[in-house]
Specification:
Layout: H1 2-27, E1 32-35, E2 46-52, E3 59-68, H2 69-73, E4 79-83, E5 87-91, E6 95-97, E7 103-104, E8 114-115, H3 116-123, E9 129-135, E10 147-152, E11 160-167, H4 193-212
Antiparallel strand pairs: 1-2, 2-10, 3-9, 3-11, 4-5, 4-10, 6-9, 7-8
Length: 214
């Protein structure tokens, strides 16, 4: 069973890396990167590495956290993000969303927003979801640099996604930069092998379509 899970994780890693690349080619997805890119079970706190693809700079970065209703109801303490030397931010003002067609967050450009339906799908839940954001890193994310952030989540049901957003225009109020369609966070969905095969088939078809219609 353990070997099967290792094989599935390897396949998911390949699918994520490849789909991220194809997504960038076909749709011009965000250039912010967060590692590890796949969902994984982790005891709190969990560390993430953040960077940006050159030549872009992500101004005024924020962290966007999205959790299931069970995770929210099971919170035992405020969710915190730490970085640098004793720098910390707590996430308050959580907002609930349940309508699949809605997109979040409000302050992002339409192309950078996440649909409630896709977030529910990543979290494998039919419940409503909760989200909150806060400024991090005390400066811009610049090419060639990596930044370490630590997320502290104390919940009886730890199911939360971790995203980073930024602005391509430092003078703008709109967040239009985000990460590609990865699923970093505190949850491992049980994805059947058939789903992996379907994903590979879809990606292969997209690549063929792209090159046939160039």
């Amino acid at each position: 069973m353990r070997d099967n899970k290792k094989i599935l994780l390897a396949l998911l890693t390949a699918v994520t890396i490849f789909s991220t690349y194809i997504g960038a080619v076909l749709a011009g997805t965000g250039s912010i990167r967060i590692e590890p890119p796949l969902p994984y079970m982790s005891e709190s706190p969990a560390e993430f590495t953040v960077s940006v693809q050159p030549p872009d700079t992500a101004c005024d970065p924020i962290i966007l956290l999205v959790m299931t209703d069970s995770c929210y109801q099971g919170l035992n303490d405020i969710v915190k993000v730490t970085w640098g030397v004793s720098r910390e931010a707590g996430l308050c003002g959580w907002q609930e969303k349940s309508v699949n067609g809605e997109k979040i967050p409000d302050f992002a450009s339409n192309g950078a927003k996440y649909t409630v339906a896709s977030l529910k799908d990543h979290l494998q839940t039919t419940e409503s979801i909760w989200y909150a954001s806060v400024a991090i890193l005390d400066g811009d994310i610049v090419p060639g640099e990596t930044y370490q952030i630590t997320v502290h989540l104390d919940s009886d049901h730890p199911e939360m996604l971790v995203y980073i957003m930024g602005k391509s225009d430092c003078d703008s109020s709109v967040y239009d930069m985000t990460v590609p369609p990865t699923i970093p966070g505190f949850v491992v969905p049980e994805i059947p092998v058939g789903t992996v095969i379907s994903l590979l088939t879809m990606i292969g078809s997209a690549v063929l379509y792209k090159f046939k219609h160039k």
